Amino acid sequence: MRLTQLDLRPIPAAASLARLSGADVAGALAQAAAEPEPANRFMRMFQVLQAMGQDALALEMQAKALERRCLYRIAGPAAPALRLLALMGPGTMLDNAPLDFLLEGSDVRLDLLYLLPGAALPAELPEHDVAIVALAESQKSRPLLARIEELIALWPRPVLNHPQGILRCARDRAWQVLAGVPGLLVPRTRKLAREELRGADLPCTIRPVDTQAGKGLERIDSPDGLAAYLASHPEPWFYVSDFVDCAGADGLYRKLRIALIDGRPYICHLAISAHWIVHYLPAGMEASAAKRAEEATLMQAFDIGFAVHHQQALQAIATGLGLDYVVIDCAQTRDGRLLLFEADIRGWIHATDPPALFPYKPAVMQRAFDAFRAMLLARAAAR
C-alpha cells in the first residue's frame, strides 16, 4: 500500500449535524445536494438523512458514494497535530464507531476509509500517523473484520482496536470472556435459534441478533410471553440473557455509559428511568432537574467514587477485551457489584447536550476527548 498526501475535499462532521433543528437539517440537505463533487455529495446526503432518522434512504446515498470513492476526509484543522485513519465498513452510525464526536474541534485530522467486501484497497492511502479499526462487531461485519485482521498485519503505521478484541464484544462472547471476575456480574447470554428458545430459562431478556438501541428487546417471564414474542418477531436468531433486576431503593433504574480509553475509565453519562430498559433520551433527563443533579454529582465525583469502588472490575473489562478504546453500558447491582450490560466500540459519546441544561457535562466530556487524543499521540510516537 502506498501512502501519499491526498487532496480530499472535506465533508462536515456528523457531530455538527447532531445539534441541528428540523429547519437546519433541511438547509443542510440542500447544501449537501449542491456539493459539486459527486462522491462527497452522496456521502453528505447520507449524513444528513441519517441525522433525520431516514436510515434506509441514507444507506442508498452511502452506497452511491462508495461506488465512486471509499476515502472521505472529515472537515478539521488545516495543520493537524496528528492524522488519524479510521477503517470503516458500510452502514450507519450503529455499524461503526462515531469517532468524529470524540474529535470535534480538536487538532486531529480524521480520514475515513470504507472497506467493502471483496473490493481491493485503493492504490493510494492518505498519509496518517495512526489507524484505528472503527467497524463494530456484528454478524454481517465478521467477514470484513477478518479481512481487516489480515490487512493490518502489514500496515505501515500503528493500528488501534484490533479485530480480535472487537469480536470479543459479541453479546454471547463477552460474558464468557469476563466470567468469574470478582466484583463484576455479566449476565449469561446465549445466541439461540428460534427452535431452541422453547427451553430458555425464565425470566430472561431477549432481542434479535444484531439489533441495537433496544430494538426488539423485551423481558420474558412466562412461556406464553415467549410465544407472543416469537409471533411478532420473525427473525431466525436471538440473544437471550439472564434478567438481573438492578432497580434502586427508589424503584428507578440507572445505567452508566463509560468509555475505557487506554485502559482508563471516563464517565460519559448517567441515565435514570422508571423502566428497566434505560436509554438516555427516553429517560427524560432534560425534563428532570433531580435526575440531572444526580448525574452531575456522579460525573463530578466519578474518579474518586464509582471508578475507585469498581476499579478491579473496570480494569478486568479493559484487559479482557484487549481494546484501546471501548464503550461500556453498566449499572451497580443491589449487592454493590458492577453489572455489565454491553461493551462495544459503537457507543455514542459526545458533547451535544445543551450546556444551559447540562452545565456540568462539557468539562467532564472534554476529559474523555483529551484522553483519546493523548492515546493517539502516544501510539503514533511509539511506532
Written account of the structure:
The protein is α/β, with parallel strands linked by helices. It has helices at 14-17, 22-33, 38-51, 55-68, 100-103, 142-152, 163-167, 171-177, 223-232, 289-300, 306-309, 311-321, 361-381, and strands spanning 2-4, 71-73, 82-88, 108-114, 124-126, 130-133, 159-160, 184-185, 189-193, 204-208, 218-220, 237-242, 253-261, 264-273, 325-332, 338-344. The protein contains 13 helices and 16 strands. The strands form four sheets. A five-stranded mixed beta sheet has the order 2-4-3-6-7, with helices on one face. Strand 15 (325-332) and strand 16 form a beta hairpin. The mean pLDDT is 94.
Task: Break the fold down into its secondary structure elements and pairings.
Layout (H helix, E strand, L loop, with lengths): L1 E3 L9 H4 L4 H12 L4 H14 L3 H14 L2 E3 L8 E7 L11 H4 L4 E7 L9 E3 L3 E4 L8 H11 L6 E2 L2 H5 L3 H7 L6 E2 L3 E5 L10 E5 L9 E3 L2 H10 L4 E6 L10 E9 L2 E10 L15 H12 L5 H4 L1 H11 L3 E8 L5 E7 L16 H21 L2
Parallel strand pairs: 1-5, 3-4, 3-6, 6-7, 8-16
Antiparallel strand pairs: 2-4, 9-12, 10-11, 10-12, 13-14, 13-15, 15-16
Helix pairs in contact: 2-3, 3-4
